[in-house]
Design brief:
Helix content: 25-40%
Radius of gyration: 24 Å
CATH topology of the largest domain: D-Maltodextrin-Binding Protein, domain 2
Shape: globular
CATH superfamily of the largest domain: Periplasmic binding protein-like II
Number of helices: 16
Structural class: alpha+beta
Distance between the termini: 35 Å
């Protein structure tokens, strides 16, 4: 990671909530006395979202990652301050412009007791690369992975890649023998609703093992006592990691029910408290909040592929192929009003297509075009739609997302784009993004500090080999494609940042997406139960760091 990016991320250090030290703990620190870790505890988490599947390569979705990647690990990960750190790889180096060598961590055991070796790493990377994996977009340019010895692997690349280690977070390591035994050598085809053994079962090397997964009911995780990381110490000599023995993750779609469970003590931690209740929660002496600025954001995007717009009253044409129509949509939406009324002030408007916290994203793009309904109507008239047209907006049926979509539908209807909202469950909605089947859709993207994965996933022309995996509108611009491919192979970070900025400025001119807002991420927890958490800016909880009282 560049020093510039590290310094920018340091200003957004993930929040750690700490409880007061006991008198014994303070005296022990002062006298240098070793204190045994607190007794392992249980944690009960609620969220509006179900993880959908346990297949680590079958889905690339925040709500899936939050759970599945407590069980599975990667070659590289991030530390408490969101900086790149070793995980199942202890070191790496570029041995030539197109070759990277990774040394694997010795002594790592899967949850069944078998050893993690180079054979498992090669298998896992090949599985993540192959269709129908939704993680292939992160590995573009990887030509082959080969085993050099039991604890060494080598990546062979099509072209130089200066930031390959950054891209390996979320590429999960699986047991080759376990996958062979259960007939899951390929990733689950999530879009086709394929049922495989990996949907409800998992076996990784992570700090927690999967005890059971009942979709839309509960995930139960139990501590993996043999995890290599439990023995790690921090700079102060104290255990670096937490004291959880068991974690229950419960999807509760209803905002009121989630908060009632927190208030009654049935739930210890809520990852998505409703915005309208955050002020009240802050004033509740029983509840502690942690908050951070999101490195991701929300968008609208349009069908850019079909010649006739589906779910519309326009025949023989696709209005969204006209830049004037896309600009009309932009001017029609009062994002600040949505933040004020729906998010209750818990967000910021953005005109950027990636957060300024992403390396190379120009801060000046964060300024939005003005809310201007008159301009929107004029642009529609210039485009040949003086009376507007009808369209269907797809949205996931989670309360704050639905409410924001309802507000946008009303604003668009006022300028003549008569918008019908279609809300779907997560299992129905999210495949529309990777399949490109929506005409007009609201969705969010959680970026990484390096820009390439986001640029490739969102803005590059789609194909099934890992380009444009979440380019839901099937936007295509050959000039942008060329630049994105060059960013992947450019070793000079200064030139690379300049190329990232160029891509984002071209996207701003073309408007295949309408940028909306970045949220303030908030978690709410029981003060008397939860002593310490780390909140990353990508809204992911790492259970390895949670400490209970």
């Amino acid at each position: 990671m560049s020093s510039r990016l590290a310094s920018r991320l340091a200003t957004l250090e993930p929040r750690r909530l700490r409880g007061p030290r006991s008198l014994l703990g303070v005296l022990a620190l002062a006298l240098g006395i070793a204190v045994a870790p607190a007794q392992a505890q249980s944690l009960r988490i609620a969220s509006a979202f179900d993880p959908q599947t346990m297949d680590p390569h079958g889905l690339a979705l925040l709500y899936h990652s939050r759970v599945a990647f407590q069980v599975y690990e990667f070659l590289t990960n991030r530390d408490e301050r969101f900086r790149l750190e070793p995980a199942l790889a202890t070191s790496w180096q570029a041995t030539s412009p197109t070759t990277w060598r990774f040394k694997l961590r010795p002594g790592v055991r899967f949850h069944d007791g078998s050893a993690f070796t180079a054979d498992d790493a090669v298998f896992s990377l090949e599985r993540a690369l192959a269709p129908p994996s939704q993680r292939a977009f992160q590995l573009r340019g990887v030509k082959a992975v080969k085993k050099l010895d039991e604890l060494t692997i080598e990546f062979q690349l099509e072209a130089p890649d200066a930031v390959l280690p950054d891209k390996l977070q979320f590429i999960a390591m699986m047991s080759k023998a376990w996958a062979e035994k259960h007939g899951v050598l390929k990733a689950q085809d999530f879009n086709a609703k394929q049922e495989t053994y990996t949907v409800r079962h998992a076996m990784g090397t992570g700090p927690f093992r999967l005890e059971s997964f009942q979709p839309d009911v509960r995930v139960l995780l139990k501590r993996h006592d043999a995890w290599w990381g439990w023995a790690e110490k921090g700079a102060d000599g104290r255990p670096r990691h937490g004291n959880l023995a068991e974690v229950s993750v419960v999807p509760i779609k209803s905002d009121a029910t989630r908060l009632a469970a927190l208030a009654s003590g049935e739930i210890d931690l809520v990852l998505d408290p409703p915005y309208q209740d955050i002020a009240r929660l802050k004033a509740d002496p029983r509840i502690a909040l942690v908050q951070a600025t999101d490195i991701g954001q929300q968008y609208l995007t349009f069908d850019q592929a079909r010649d006739e717009l589906e779910f519309s009253d326009v025949k023989g044409k696709n209005p969204f192929k006209d830049l004037r129509v896309r600009r009309a949509v932009y001017h029609a939406i009062n994002v600040q009003l949505i933040i004020d009324k729906v998010l209750r002030g818990q967000g910021v408007p953005t005109g950027a297509f990636l957060s300024p916290l992403v390396d190379g994203s120009p801060p000046d793009l964060d300024r939005r075009l003005p809310f201007d309904p008159a301009k929107a109507k004029a642009l529609l008239g210039e485009a040949g739609y003086p009376n507007g047209f009808a369209v269907t907006l797809d949205c996931v049926n989670v309360a704050w997302r639905e409410n924001a979509c309802q507000a946008m539908a009303a604003m668009l209807t006022q300028v003549g784009i008569r918008t019908t909202l279609r809300s779907s469950t997560t299992g129905t909605f999210f495949p529309k993004l990777s399949q490109g089947t929506a005409s007009f859709v609201e969705y969010g993207w959680t970026a990484a500090p390096d820009a390439y994965n986001s640029l490739n996933a969102l803005f590059r022309t789609f194909d099934r080999t890992g380009f444009g995996t979440f380019n839901a509108g099937r936007y295509s611009n050959p000039k942008i494609d060329t630049l994105i491919d060059q960013i992947r192979t450019e070793p000079d970070l200064t030139r690379r940042r300049a190329m990232v900025a160029t891509v984002l400025r071209l996207v701003a001119e073309d408007l295949p997406y309408i940028p909306l807002y970045r949220r303030t991420l908030t978690w709410a927890m029981q003060k008397k139960k939860v002593a310490s958490v780390v909140q990353w800016p990508n809204d992911t909880i790492e259970l390895r760091w949670v400490r209970m009282r």
